[in-house]
Specification:
about 170 residues; binds adenosine-5'-diphosphate; alpha/beta; Rossmann fold; 5 strands
Length: about 170
């Protein structure tokens, strides 16, 4: 069984993330979307909310599972008996950080390979941060995130927008 871990904050999941997960699902027997607690990034959605959003948005992909993890990624990967880490590469700007991360993870555990996947070109400009910003300003995010994420963002940001309008 070839298992890959797709780690990230997923705050929240975008169509770019979903595209990468779908591509990875064609290459591996099982792909586990592993959501990092990452409290230092002050996520908009709680860990439980992010897990629920990913679970629902990937429900149509039979070999994609959702999980969360805390601590060192390589330890989690070994624990799940996975062979690879999947990361998305959008632009050259992602490369430097991802390269450093991949080599560091290899230093920590040389049995684990990092695989980079490019999303569909129309998703290369997407990031969770930008989607949150557009939603916060009342912009249309329908083409950027799955429908359940869209509703969750609107619900979460409504009180903030009302506060800002006062
Ligand atoms: P992190 O907080 O670790 O950067 P993210 O949740 O932002 O995690 O993203 C997780 C992974 O998904 C990273 O590899 C990131 O490069 C990738 N990713 C994010 N947005 C996109 C996108 N629009 N297309 C492809 N990959 C993406």
């Amino acid at each position: 069984m070839r298992i890959a871990i797709y780690p990230g904050s997923f705050d929240p999941l975008t169509n770019g993330h979903l595209d990468v997960a779908q591509r990875a699902a064609k290459l591996f027997d099982r792909v586990i979307v592993a959501i990092a607690e990452n409290d230092s990034k002050h996520p908009l959605f709680t860990l439980a909310e992010r897990v629920a959003l990913v679970k629902k948005a990937t429900a149509h992909l039979p070999n994609v599972q959702t999980d969360s993890f805390d601590g060192l990624l390589v330890n989690y990967v070994a624990e799940r008996k996975a062979k690879a880490i999947v990361r998305g590469l959008r632009a050259v700007s992602d490369f430097e950080f991802e390269f450093q991360l991949a080599l560091m993870n290899r230093k920590l555990d040389e049995n684990i390979e990092t695989i980079f996947m490019m999303p569909k070109d129309t998703y290369t400009f997407l990031s969770s941060r930008i989607v949150k910003e557009i939603a916060r300003l009342g912009g249309d995010i329908r083409s950027f995130v799955p429908p359940n994420v869209q509703s969750a963002l609107i619900k979460k940001l409504k009180p903030q927008r009302q506060k800002g309008a006062k």
